[in-house]
Every structure is written in C-alpha cells, then in structure tokens.
Design goal:
It comes from Hoeflea algicola. The chain is an alpha+beta fold and about 500 residues long. The protein has 18 helices and 20 strands. α1 packs antiparallel against α4 and α15 packs antiparallel against α16. Bound molecules: flavin-adenine dinucleotide.
Length: about 500
C-alpha cells in the first residue's frame, strides 16, 4: 500500500467490539460463535463451494455477524465501525454468485434480513417502498395479492433480498418488458460509510447532476448500506401467452430476437437456447427434427395489445424460418423458473458454474463460437451450453453453463480458472461486457480494469472519498484490497479452513 492511500485505524479487540455492537442491536442479534458465523463465510460463488467440498474456505470467517432490525440501528453500526476502524460487509441472503458477500479480511457481517417490511404501496403514483432486507419472493407475493408486481423476477427470487438486487444491479426474467433493476428503482435510502443517512426521494426523474441513486445501485456494498428502496409498480398483466418456436439455426433465432426488439416490441420473456440446451429440452418433439433451435417467448399485458404484439412478432419469426411448436418447453420453464439446479451437480462432485456476459448483436455469433471452441480445447469433457435472454435493441445477455465432470480438485480448479479466463477475455475482445447481471464480487476483479476503459481509478477515487478507511466491503468490485486480505480466486490457492 502506498503512503498516499487512506489508512484504516487499528481494529478494536473482539470483546470490546462485541460489547459496542451488543449495545446497538442486543445480544441475541450478535452472532459470535463459529456455528453462527459459518453460514456467512460464503455466498453462492461456485469456487467457494468447491473449496468447501474440501473443508476449506475461499475467504475467512467474519469476526462477528450483526442483525440490525431498523435503519437507525444500521446507521449506529456504521458510525461505530467507522470510529473503531472495523470493516463491514452488508449481507442480503447470500445468493450472490461472485463472492461479493465473502469476508476476505477481518470484516463484521451485517445481515439485513430483519428489515423485511413493505413500507407503503402507492398505486396512484405506481410505486412501492420496501425495506432492503425483505425476501424477494415474499415481497412479490404480497404485491401479487393486491394485483401488482414490480416486474423484477430473477431466478433467485426465493433466495435473494430486494437490497441484494439493487446492490448487484440485477436483472429479472421479465426484463425485456420491465427493464433491469436500475430502470425500476425510483428512490432509495442508504447509510454511507461515514454514517451519513441519505434519502433519494422517489420521483419520476430529476436533472440535478449525476444520479446519486445510480452510484449506489450496483455498488455491491462498497459505498454504503441500502436500507430502503422505492420501486415502480405495475398492474399484473391481464393475459400472459407463451409461444414455443423451432428455428433452423442459432443465427436465425438471434436475428429474429434482434428484429423483435428493434421493431419496438416488448415481450415479457425471450429465451433462445443454443443447440446443446435446445436438444436437452426438445427430445421427441417432431418440430425440432429439422429446426433444432428452441426459443420461448411470452407476451403479456392487455388482451388487444398482446394479440397485436404476438402477431407482429410471429411475422418476424416466420421470416427467419421458425415454426410454432408444442407448449412443453414453455410449461417446463414456467414450472422451474425459480429452481436452482446447480446444488445437485455440486453435491454429485461436478464443477458447475455459470457466466453471464453481454454482447452486441453483430458480435454474438462469432463470440459464442470462439468461446465454445476455447472451453472445449481446455477440457473436451466439459458440458458447455448457453441461452440468450434479456434482449435489447443493441444486443443480448449470453448466459453460459460450464460443468466439469467429477475429478481431482487439483486438476479441476486450474481448468475452471482457464475457462473463466477464456470466456471473459473473449468477451472483452469482442467488445462485450464481462458481467450482465450477477455483478463483480471478487471473482471478476481481474477483468474490471479492462472492462471500465480507464475509469477504474475514478471509481477508486469515489470509494476513497466516501470511505477513506476502506471499511465498507473492501476488496470487492475491483477496488483496493485491505493489506493482508485473502485474494479469493480461481488462480489463487484456497486458504485452509481455520478459526479467525
Ligand atoms: C440459482 C441462482 C439464480 C440466480 N438468478 C439471478 C437472476 O435471475 N438475476 C440476477 O440478477 N441475479 C441472479 N442470481 C444472483 C443473485 O441472486 C443476485 O445477485 C441477488 O441480487 C443477490 O441478492 P442477495 O440478497 O442474496 O445478496 P447477497 O448475496 O447477500 O449480497 C450480494 C452483494 O450485495 C451486497 N449487498 C446485499 N444487500 C445489500 C444492501 N442492502 N446494501 C448494500 N449492499 C448490499 C453484498 O455486500 C454483496 O456484495 C442468481 C443466483 C443464484 C444462486
């Protein structure tokens, strides 16, 4: 660390810390024993899971876990942490897949799940205000019961919090119609690293300088703790209609998706599967014999609008040689849309991971081909499949699954690392973005400098100005690691599991 970089004060002794935080949240909301802290040593980063299978940690145990019940308690925690030089990690539900919530130094984890209430539903202004720790599925269910939805429906809705959605700049399955989380958040409250509480009042728009809201959205806990969010509210669609299509080629399906978005149509859901994933979903379906590529679209809204939108889209699909097929793949997707399948693979000893990137339409076919070639060269036995969802006029998210068969960890981890290297490097070489909606956490730290095109120092300066002690989720988002911190990553050996 150079002398010009901000320094942290020496962290206080554990017992003194515990007493300070107990006075804020109460003894029952300070977890200090190993069993209590253990679930907070990881999120859903697959690399962390691989390490745990060998009884190792990818990072370290948090020193303590705090469970505040109000925004005032969050503020008091942050102020105390700042005074004592203690690093904090905001924790939603630990469903992040890039290691954003993994302790790497001597952090205290702040579990926000007791902030779990809807504050107000305001149908007149089409807004809902919710505490940041509310579970996504519980939030959506309460809104649905009143005839509304936010339209943010990530696959992880049952295992994530609203604050986590905002912090990771997430995207849901209905994003082509309703947008991503940054399009939905109209206001928020947060506690900055110096303990200041800010309130970005919910209004349709403002022209008052750079958007402070957008500095917090996607900050992955490095610039403050989000305590409350106001989101757009939509009436539940009158009709939802799924369409299953068989396309002759991946290129035809991608071109059709591009034309749909550029024709200003806004399907609720659009999913195009590569040859591998199409095969898995269409076995014994006659339509796919000569047209092997599967696409599932959902059109939703008011009846006349849905009918028109669907008709216009079908004309586009037809012009690329697609035919409509049986509903089974749509029904299967609907039934399983919130199910996580990765756990079963990990449990069976496989090395399963997913990587989502963004590519422009003109780059996608060549980029995808290059990626498939690269990962198969690294390990011919790899399962490599992809689908394109989250479609835009400019391009799409390419969501890939890489799965190595059971083998020695010593052999698998370097292969896994090489595959990440190949995919992220090829993304950058083809002009794409290294992350579409999972965020950066720690696992993408190695690529963030190239991703940001010269702006990483600017991000670091914002961090240093707001958090001179580097106390708020340090070392994430490609920002400076504290001295002596564990470098979590595929190219680094995992640390043996030990008490901190
Ligand atoms: C099976 C599966 C499917 C997934 N599908 C999707 C998907 O469809 N779309 C999608 O976008 N993501 C998806 N994800 C990724 C993950 O669920 C999201 O990133 C989610 O938004 C994380 O929420 P969380 O509450 O679990 O946050 P955590 O994992 O607890 O935290 C994630 C990061 O946000 C920070 N953070 C959490 N809460 C706050 C807060 N209140 N204030 C400040 N910082 C905070 C943490 O410090 C950490 O850096 C999926 C993950 C899994 C395992």
């Amino acid at each position: 660390m150079s002398s010009s970089q901000p320094q942290s004060p020496a962290p206080a002794a554990l017992s003194a810390l515990q007493a300070e935080f107990t006075s804020i949240v109460g003894a029952e909301n300070v977890l200090s024993d190993e069993a209590g802290r253990r679930p907070y040593a990881h999120d859903r980063l697959p690399f962390a899971n691989f390490c745990e299978r060998q009884d190792k940690l990818a990072g370290v145990l948090p020193r303590l876990v705090l469970r505040p019940g109000t925004a005032d308690e969050v503020q008091a925690i942050v102020k105390t942490a700042r005074r004592l030089g203690v690093q904090l990690i905001p924790f939603g539900n630990g469903s992040g897949v890039l290691g954003g919530a993994i302790p790497v130094s001597a952090e205290v984890t702040v579990d926000l799940r007791r902030l779990d209430q809807i504050v107000s539903v305001d149908p007149g202004n089409a807004m809902v205000t919710v505490q940041a720790g509310m579970n996504g599925a519980a939030f959506e269910a309460e809104l649905n019961a009143q005839g509304y939805s936010t339209g943010h429906l990530p696959q992880s809705i049952e295992i994530s919090t609203v604050g986590g959605w905002a912090a990771c700049r997430g995207g849901g399955q209905a994003s082509s119609r309703y947008g991503k989380i940054e399009d939905m958040i109209v206001g928020l409250k947060a506690v900055l690293p110096d303990g200041t509480a800010i309130n970005i009042r919910p209004v349709a728009r403002r022209a008052t300088g750079p958007s402070i809201r957008d500095i917090l959205v996607g900050s992955e806990g490095t610039l403050g703790i989000i305590t409350e969010i106001t989101m757009r509210l939509w009436k539940l669609p009158e009709v939802e209609r799924g369409v299953v299509l068989a396309f002759p080629t991946e290129a035809a399906a991608l071109d059709a998706a591009r034309d749909v978005m550029q024709a200003e149509l806004r399907p609720l859901v659009a999913r195009i599967y590569d040859a591998q994933e199409s095969r898995e979903r269409t076995e014994n379906m006659p339509e796919f014999q000569s047209r092997p590529i599967l696409a599932v679209y959902v059109f939703a809204g008011r009846e006349p609008m849905v009918t028109t939108e669907q008709q216009m889209a079908m004309e586009i699909f037809g012009s690329y040689g697609a035919v409509e097929a049986g509903q089974e793949p749509y029904e299967h997707w609907r039934k399983n849309r919130y199910v996580a399948f990765s756990a079963q693979w990990q449990k069976a000893g496989y090395f399963n991971d997913t990587i989502e990137i963004t590519g422009n339409w003109s780059a996608l076919p060549a980029m995808f081909e290059a990626m498939g070639k690269a990962v198969r060269e690294i390990c011919p036995e790899v399962h490599f499949g992809a689908h394109w969802s989250h479609i835009y006029p400019e391009g799409a998210c390419q969501y890939m699954t890489i799965r190595l068969p059971p083998m020695d960890h010593e052999k698998a981890l370097p292969l896994h690392a090489q595959m990440w290297q190949a995919i992220e490097n090829l993304t950058l070489e083809h002009g794409g973005s290294i992350a579409h909606h999972h965020g950066v956490g720690v696992f993408r730290n190695g690529w963030i400098e190239r991703e940001l095109g010269g702006a990483l120092p600017m991000l670091q300066q914002i961090k240093d100005a707001l958090d001179p002690g580097n106390l708020m989720n340090p070392g994430k988002l490609g920002l400076r690691l504290p001295e002596g911190a564990v470098v979590v990553g595929q190219l680094n050996p995992a640390t043996p599991r030990q008490e901190s």
